[in-house]
Amino acid sequence: MIKKIVPLFLLFVSMVSNAQQPGEDKWGAWYMYFGTNKVSERLSIHSEVQARYYETTSNFNQLLLRTGLNYHIDPSAIATIGYGYIDTDNSFGEIPGEVNSIEHRIFEQFILKNKVWELLFEHRYRLEQRFLDFGDATDTQHRARYRIQMTLPLTNTFYLNFYDELFINLQDDLFGQNRLYAAVGVNVTENSSVQLGYMRNQFPNAVYDRLQVAVFYNPDLRGLFNKKKP
């Protein structure tokens, strides 16, 4: 009896291990661009591009394009409404399948900022309406996100950045994911910076380690929109 059970158990373990190959043992990478461009005293445009890989330079995972219109209530409070387009390769993803999934996403966001001693805090609250197309099926999902971020200036040029972000599903299982992040940042110019960091991305059944390279470029575009006619 034991001789029959052992081979069956080993076969089961092999099948499970082969079925669960989501790239958890790989160091993936996210390469990102973020822009916030003032177009008036109260309004700015958010732009964002992210290329995500299961490995540092190969095995495409996801392309994310996001934009939004920001309303600056005051220097410490910003409200945003926006749209995102997400193309995901599901070969290692949460949703099995060979065809990439496409997501159209609408989001509403509110940011509050405050300072404690030299620490700069940012609280980001976001609601998302997600319209997903898996090729042979579609789905609509809703979720909420909360991110607390802390920035510590070291000099006028260098700084440290940390955040933790929790994703809450508004249907099915409550916990979606949690992202814990730490980075070193460099202020290149008055309106541009670069961050090199590490993110631990935890899902209900998987944990991913991700290198992050982010470029921030925030030129003020009010001069282009407020030019006086000759």
TrEMBL record:
It comes from the Bacteria. It holds the Pfam family DUF2490. InterPro entries: DUF2490. This is DUF2490 domain-containing protein. The lineage of its organism: Bacteria, Pseudomonadati, Bacteroidota, Flavobacteriia, Flavobacteriales. Keywords: Signal. Residues 1-19 form the signal peptide.
